[in-house]
Amino acid sequence: MLPQTEEQLAKAALCKAPEDIYSVSARELISRHCRSFLDAMRATPTELLFSEDLQKKLENAGTAYSGAVQKVAIAQVSGTKNRDVAGRIKEIFALCDGVRNRTLEAVTAIPVDPLDPKRLKEQLALLPAEGEQRLFRLNLMLARALLKEKGWDEKTALLLTLCEADPPAADMVALDVALSEIIRLPAGLDTIIGKQGKTVGERIALLSKLASGKADDPAPVPSDPPLAQRLMNLQARAAQPNVTAGLQAQMLAAITGTYPMTSGSTADELRATLDVAQRVRLKNGQFLGGETTEAALARRLSRLVNDQNIHDLMVGAPRLAERLQRCLDLYRKMIGPQNYDFLKKYIDYLLQERTVASDVAPKSASVPERLRGLTELHTILMGAPLPSVFRGKLQLRMEEVQNNLLDESGILDRIVKRGGNSAEKALPLIDLCCNDTLIKGSNLRRVRELAQRHIKQPDFLPSILAAATDDADRVKRMQDLHDRLIEAGLASDGGAEK
Question: Superkingdom of this entry's organism (predicted)?
Fold first, then answer.
């Protein structure tokens, strides 16, 4: 999980040697605690760490330097036994002195040539072959080049141009880290993707696309400023880990903030929040940013999941089965136990016996149509992402409502009394067993048993074949009957049950 608080970040960047200060977490700590100085210089942590001039200016800044060290020391010793703030302050000053001395020695020994995109391959070829020395020298040259650019847009453009020159993967590390430092700054990010014209939800969607590098993501990438599209091209070619982490950190900051996702209705806000939740949900079901992100999304949803908003989502779904499916789709995406409980209660209310009996089909629908409506609800519930006990209770309710409909409608009695011979009684019963009219279980068994009783009567087959005109017609009638019996579950492929 990405550090969310200054104390978490300070403990993650607990440096013990000067070289530890070059780590990504230490640079982020520098960015936060030396913010006023870096903003005044319009500089990145990379420039500060590899420029002897900036280091000297920070040291001469007095309280800005000492205040930053003191804040970091306090955060790092917090909750730690046998450690005191004064001792840690001395350690941090010593570490910073080590970084400054190393920088001075390096630039004194060999003059530093700023990185130039036009001469990049030539410059990289002259660097030391050894990994750590090469990276240090490369950062010195990068810092020199960045210091010549005065705005975040100019610095970003330079870094992107260097990346577009396609340096070796090992050398891309320095560019990746420096670019991520600008991305993590709100002002730097605004320079890249633009500040105006985006809701929070749209901004998060754009950051998500840039972080993943997935060109097929439908989120639009602005052409103005052009830096956004260039960054997208870089990420699509090969997503850079620190750039990705920086973009994700900005996504989390927006999610855990209080600004709404959209400027539209609460229903729009609900849909946008769920869309963002899908973007930050990982394959294992957890969330980018862990429990902090999950809690923030749950809080946002708790303000949106209410009777009125759910009712608004049901607009355009006249059938009860459609409304149930929408609720279940929402439940599948939901976050937070409180919100899950609300939706469970709403679904329970939606499927009350009285409501189901009256709303499962239009008032003008026939009894078979109403029976099929109940079976459809039962089938939807079978695959619902609900707790098994709750889902089972609702399924049993559908079975009971359907059983009551069979009794109260008198459909079975009418069929039996209406028919003159066994075929006229059995065939409508067979039809009830087909086309997913009845819920599999006691209701379907009940009608099958009644149908079987008439199928086994001596006059059943003669009645079926009575109107046959010839042998071919009789064979066809027998085959049609057999197929229908198989569909109704009253026969197997081996032959009809008579």
Answer: Bacteria
